Amino acid sequence: MKFSILGGLILIASRVLAECSDDDAGTLGKCLTTLSSSGFGGTAELFSKKEEVEAFCKNFTDVDDCKNAVPILTKSAECVAKLPADSQGSALKLQLLYLSFCGTDGDNKQCPLAKFITENVSKITDEKAAESEDLKKVLAEDCKNEKCNANMQIAGGIMSQDSIKDAIAILAKGLNAVVQKYKENYEKKTCDAITGNGSDDKDDAVTLKRITFSLIGMILLSSLILL
Fold first, then answer.
1. Is 13 domain-assigned?
2. What does the UniProt keyword field contain (predicted)?
3. What is the Cα–Cα distance from 167 to 187, expressed in whole angstroms?
4. Is residue 2 part of a domain?
5. What predicted TM-score, i.e. pTM, was given to this entire model?
6. Which residues, in sequence order, are CB contacts of 42 under 8 Å at separation 6+?
7. Number of structural domains, the chain?
8. 170-206: per-residue pLDDT in tens?
9. Do residue 44 and residue 125 come from a single domain?
10. Which residue among 43, 67, 144, 224 has the highest number of C-beta atoms inside a 10 angstrom radius?
């Protein structure tokens, strides 16, 4: 499969700003170089089948150079964005790909959304994908997982950066539409609202509060009657 991290990967330069250490820059550079030498180069093409996604993600579990880069890729996008101009495009694109397709939860299991995308990569091809009821259920589950939620918030942040608009082209229009449409649900943690249930934690807390005050009122009223 022909694929481009930035249409010909660039080694990360050693010059970095305070937000990213020299070690971070070097680690990302090694991963990018490894991916390039493994055939991830040439013309930019989307993953077209499950096996291609799995092969890409396997680099982050089986190949030391990329396995070591995972802690950096799951940091805020600001760190990667502060790398030198000739390197940050490659790094941000790599981060976006990792978070969207390979992101894991606290138990190192593939996040619900990443797993769904992997298994249905050939189907998520347009904006209509965001309306799938099956996908909405997965999104609600993904949103409730703390680490997976953080992953997608970072991915959404990358997509909104002017300097990396071209990176969005890497993702199918359907996936881009999904992230943009439900970004606010992830941020506000109104996860159940994604499926239309609307029983998120905030609403549950308000309901519990109302019930508690009602019970207290009834107890006080009963006490007054007994007196």
1. no
2. Signal
3. 22
4. no
5. 0.74
6. 2, 3, 4
7. 2
8. 665 667 778 788 989 999 999 999 998 765 555 455 4
9. yes
10. 144
